[in-house]
UniProtKB/TrEMBL annotation:
Protein name per its UniProtKB record: Beta-hexosaminidase
Extent of the signal sequence: 1-24
Keyword set includes Signal: yes
E.C. designation(s): 3.2.1.52
Length: 587
């Protein structure tokens, strides 16, 4: 042992460290101090006695009010709780672990005040959970079934052990999210994901108390959604018969979302990003199937910002005939009150490639007027179905092609930001719109895997280059879990302005992702956003960012997600978990 003489000092320092953690843990639980770990961290979690654990009775049961979705969730959690047998990587340092059956917990009793409240934006997700130190019944109380589901998740994370199950006891939790909209966007057009991949993703979202699956279903590359009124769009525009979503698949996904407290928010991107529509209806799509950026033209004259060209033609009446059928089908398939209509990245060169548009422009028309015609003909139709329309920020903020605010009624429109970090969030809320934050500088999960273009000379470098530093992709570098965790989506906003921010979404665009890498790209980085939007990224008492203790907790949570069947990537060597604090930097 070459460094034998150093060891006693390390042990001394380490025992002091442990002692400190034990003292700190008496007041508030779940801070990473005693190994009791709930992710995302609850707003308030405190011990009513000294930190302790009791046996979870082998006949443990959950008593739930009868409700189609909550009863199903309760059964699911009961099964998870009884079979998971999580073994914490750091043994919880509790004052009292009682394995006597006299103090075993027999029942989790759920009370819900309002069983009829549907799952919708802003629904009350508050819950309280009391686990007694010396009685056999724990209480979970919530205003809605959706809040009760959040509480079930918390309870499941307070149980561990093998062969006996232990449950943290003498514990009180009050919990409620800071932001109502905690979402994940997945693009199923550029590469296809099976229904099971989507279900697994929704399930993992519910583990992380997230509540919106933003499904970017269609784009220029493929149209995988089979629509009853417009079956040709998928028949001809999908990647193939085995790469489609049938109405039954959608129903399954929406219902699965409901049993997990996750809304499924569909996006049909248009008028840009619609090349795949041309397989069925070439007459309504401009510049379809062209080489995206011809050698002889400069960037301003490109037809698309990436390979895969095509925009719907706002001047062709048939465009609206098809689109109205699509909207009809979407509102029938998705009960969700938000309808994402896209409207990002109108590329002038694509519209200018069309002869009817050329005459419109040469008669004094503008590209922005074309977009106004499109929005003015579709938004009212979507609103007619009592939907709130979500658009990407471009529709208002794009430098070249945008619409006047009068086309975007504020009570019916939400804008999702993705450029210029906090600056555009401020522009959106200052213009009077509610915002969903997906800033690509912080929340894009696909960045940093290189660019996907072939024949790309930027990689032919024998000297280090800047593109190597940013990972070669437009939004590089890779967004680490810390980048995501530390971002404040209301940065630079006044209290009034901040109220207009509904929440955030991390986004996985799928140029370089498919089912094989889905879990690794999403988890645990998406968990980082989930905690920040649920309970914040700061210590409640000091207001200081809590990324140091979050590291240990996220590590533990990652292992727990893996044992629940999620292919989440590691964030540190195992050694760091076994030696808490030792892998930190103190500089
Ligand atoms: C542990 O809990 C049991 C049962 O409540 C109690 O009898 C015992 O005194 C406790 N031990 C400590 C060290 O607090
Ligand atoms: C649970 O609720 C019951 C009935 O309201 C109450 O008697 C009991 O004390 C509660 N237990 C805890 C641990 O809060
Ligand atoms: C949510 O429900 C709880 C009771 O469970 C209540 O105290 C709270 O005021 C409700 N929150 C809102 C925003 O209505
Ligand atoms: C690129 O094309 C635009 C529009 O035709 C033109 O204004 C601009 O000067 C061109 N830029 C270069 C570098 O050729
Ligand atoms: C319209 O949507 C709102 C909010 O989702 C809902 O409260 C209301 O009942 C709906 N109205 C109709 C007529 O469906
Ligand atoms: C945001 O605005 C500030 C102040 O105008 C500017 O310095 C900064 O570069 C902008 N950031 C981005 C990402 O555009
Ligand atoms: C590769 O790019 C060069 C310009 O850098 C171009 O001249 C050539 O035609 C391209 N080759 C292919 C196969 O696309």
């Amino acid at each position: 042992m070459p460094h034998g003489s150093v060891i006693p000092a390390i042990i001394l320092i380490f025992s002091l460290f442990i002692l400190q953690l034990c003292i700190a843990s008496v007041a508030s639980a779940g801070g990473g101090g005693n190994g009791i770990n709930v992710w995302p961290k609850p707003r308030i979690m405190s011990w009513t006695t000294q930190p302790r654990a009791n046996l979870l009775s082998p006949s443990f049961a959950i008593s739930s009010p009868k409700h189609f979705y909550l009863s199903s969730a309760a059964n699911r959690y009961l099964k998870l709780i009884k079979t998971e047998h999580h073994q914490p990587l750091v043994t919880p340092s509790l004052i009292n672990i009682t394995t006597s059956s006299s103090s075993a917990l027999h029942t989790l009793f759920i009370t819900v005040e309002s069983l009829l409240t549907p799952l919708q934006h802003g629904v009350n997700e508050t819950y309280t959970l009391s686990i007694p130190a010396d009685a056999s019944i724990a209480n979970l109380t919530a205003h809605t079934v959706w809040g009760a589901m959040r509480g079930l998740e918390t309870f499941s994370q307070l149980v561990w052990g093998k062969p006996n199950l232990l449950v943290a006891s003498g514990l009180y939790v009050w919990d409620s999210p800071l932001f109502a909209h905690r979402g994940l966007m997945v693009d199923t057009s550029r590469n296809y994901y099976g229904v099971d991949d989507i279900l697994r993703t929704i399930k993992t979202m519910s583990f992380n108390k997230m509540n919106v699956f933003h499904w970017h279903i269609t784009d220029s590359h493929s149209f995988p959604l089979v629509l009853p009124s417009e079956p040709d769009l998928a028949a001809k525009g999908s990647y193939g018969h085995d790469m489609q979503y049938s109405p039954n698949d959608v129903k399954k996904i929406v219902e699965f979302g409901l049993t997990h407290g996750v809304r499924v928010l569909p996006e049909i991107d248009s008028p840009g990003h619609t090349g795949s529509w041309a397989e069925a209806y070439p007459e309504i799509v401009t510049c379809a199937n062209k080489f995206w950026w011809p050698a002889e033209s400069n960037w301003t004259n490109r037809l698309a910002s990436e390979p895969g060209t095509g925009h719907l033609n706002p001047l062709n009446p048939k465009t609206y005939k098809i689109l109205k059928n699509v909207i009809n089908d979407i509102v029938n398939l998705f009960p969700e009150a938000f309808y994402h209509a896209g409207a990002d990245e109108i590329i002038p060169g694509c519209w200018k490639a069309d002869s009817t548009i050329q005459s419109f422009l040469s008669n004094g028309g503008t590209l922005s007027q074309l977009l106004e015609k499109f929005v003015g003909s579709t938004l009212p139709y979507i609103v007619f179905f009592n939907r709130t329309v979500v658009y990407w920020e471009d529709v208002l903020l794009d430098d070249n092609v945008n619409v006047r605010p009068s086309f975007l009624p504020k009570e019916h429109t939400i804008l999702q930001t993705w450029n210029n970090g906090a600056n555009n969030t401020k522009r959106i809320v200052d213009a009077g719109y509610r915002a969903i934050v997906s800033s690509s500088e912080f929340y894009y999960l696909d960045c940093g895997h290189g660019d996907f273009l072939g024949n790309d000379s930027q990689y032919d470098q024998l000297q280090p280059s800047s593109s190597a530093n940013n990972g070669g992709s437009w939004c590089g570098p890779f967004k680490t879990w810390q980048t995501i965790y530390d971002y404040d989506i209301t940065y630079g906003l006044s209290e009034e302005e901040a109220k207009m921010v509904l929440g955030g979404e991390v986004a996985l665009w799928s140029e370089q992702a498919d089912p094989k890498v889905l879990d690794v790209r999403l988890w645990p980085r998406t968990s980082a956003m989930a905690e920040t939007l649920w309970s914040g990224n700061r210590d409640e008492e000091t207001g200081i960012k809590r990324y140091a203790q979050a590291t240990d907790r996220l590590n533990e949570w990652r292992y727990r997600m893996v044992s629940r069947g999620v292919g989440a990537e590691p964030i540190q060597p195992l050694w760091c978990l076994r030696n808490p604090g030792m892998c930190n930097t103190a500089h």
